[in-house]
Structure formats: structure tokens, C-alpha cells
Amino acid sequence: MTQQGAALQTYNNELVKCIEELCSKREELNRLIQQEEAEKTRLQHDIRLLTDKLSHVNESLAHRLAARADFDRTIAETEAAYMKILESSQTLLSVLKKETGNLTKATEPRSITDH
């Protein structure tokens, strides 16, 4: 019976040791879980901040793109109007030169042989 009692004591000691090891592993696992949960919370917070920043950047970008489109439209309209002014100036200059030539001919003294 002593031998059985010793065997029982050995089994008991091993069982206690196994339970202690399991508890120790569980505690380590629990510590890792807490670390990952804390990291998850930090990441979720960072995502919220970045999402807000992205929203603001998108808003700002939309306004700037609209403003640039307005600039492009205004520049194109101004360039087109300027080209019309240049064309009109060229036409006016041509007409003026022609009229100046006609006026010069009209004011030149006529010689008798011109008749």
C-alpha cells in the first residue's frame, strides 16, 4: 500500500505541476491578449484620426480642384478674348494703313500729266 501511496503522491505532484504550468501559460497568453487589445485600441484610434484627416484633405482638395477649374476657365476665356482683340487690332491696323495710303494719294498734288 505504501508503494501505491507513493505512486499516488507522484501522480498528484505531477498533476499539480501540470495545472501550475497551464495556469502560467494562461497568464502569459492573457498578458499577450491584453497587449494586442491595447494595440488594437491604439490602431482604431489612429484609424479614426487618419479617417478624419483624409476627410478634411478630400474636402480641401475638392475646393482647390474647383478653384483650379475656375482659373482654367477664366484663363481660356481671357486668352480667347485677347486673341479677338489682337485680330481686331490687326484688322484695324490694316484698314488704317489702307486709309492712310488713300488719304496720302488724295492729298498729293496732281500733275497736269495725270489727267
From TrEMBL:
UniProt keyword list: Coiled coil
GO cellular component: axon; centrosome; ciliary basal body
Superkingdom as given in the UniProt entry: Eukaryota
One BP term from GO: axon extension
Presence of keyword Transmembrane: no
Annotated InterPro entries: SSNA1_fam
Protein name stated in the entry: Sjoegren syndrome nuclear autoantigen 1-like
Organism: Carassius auratus
Lineage: Eukaryota, Metazoa, Chordata, Craniata, Vertebrata
Gene: LOC113083582
